[in-house]
Automatic annotation (TrEMBL):
<dbReference type="InterPro" id="IPR001398">
    <property type="entry name" value="Macrophage_inhib_fac"/>
</dbReference>
<dbReference type="GO" id="GO:0005615">
    <property type="term" value="C:extracellular space"/>
</dbReference>
<dbReference type="Pfam" id="PF01187">
    <property type="entry name" value="MIF"/>
</dbReference>
<dbReference type="GO" id="GO:0050178">
    <property type="term" value="F:phenylpyruvate tautomerase activity"/>
</dbReference>
<dbReference type="GO" id="GO:0004167">
    <property type="term" value="F:dopachrome isomerase activity"/>
</dbReference>
<keyword id="KW-0413">Isomerase</keyword>
<dbReference type="InterPro" id="IPR014347">
    <property type="entry name" value="Tautomerase/MIF_sf"/>
</dbReference>
<comment type="similarity">
    <text>Belongs to the MIF family.</text>
</comment>
<keyword id="KW-0964">Secreted</keyword>
<protein>
    <recommendedName>
        <fullName>L-dopachrome isomerase</fullName>
        <ecNumber>5.3.2.1</ecNumber>
        <ecNumber>5.3.3.12</ecNumber>
    </recommendedName>
</protein>
<keyword id="KW-0202">Cytokine</keyword>
């Protein structure tokens, strides 16, 4: 169920293509099926970092059961490299927030993941 919410202050020539590529990377990096990955990319020309409008990003990753200190290091590296390669945004121009809300605090199919996992 990972949700990757990316905000950038650089214009993306083909947002849909980038979103699909980011979805594949998210699935591969986070070890979750792409069928459950949600990606949102927002262009925000007023996003600043370090007091400038130089290229920057803000990424929030919401995912269940796979976020921890060791794994987050790997995720941070993979996503930062992607931003550098695809958007020319250096890894020192943004933050990545890792959020695991817990199974009881994430809904899907009219219930929560706590209920879904309890049934399986």
């Amino acid at each position: 169920m990972p949700y990757l919410e990316l905000m950038v202050n650089v214009q993306v020539p083909d947002e849909k293509a980038l979103a699909l590529e980011f979805s594949k990377l998210g699935a591969q990096t986070l070890g979750k099926p792409e069928a459950y990955i949600t990606v949102s990319i927002t262009y925000n020309k007023t996003l600043t970092f370090g007091g400038t409008f130089d290229p920057a990003f803000a990424l929030t990753i919401t995912s269940l059961d796979n976020l921890n200190t060791e794994a987050n290091e790997k995720y941070s590296l993979a996503f930062s490299e992607f931003f550098k390669e695809k958007l020319n945004i250096p890894n020192d121009r943004g933050y990545i927030t890792f959020n695991d809300p817990g199974r009881g605090f994430l809904g899907f199919k009219g219930t929560t993941f706590a209920t879904i996992f309890a049934k399986s």
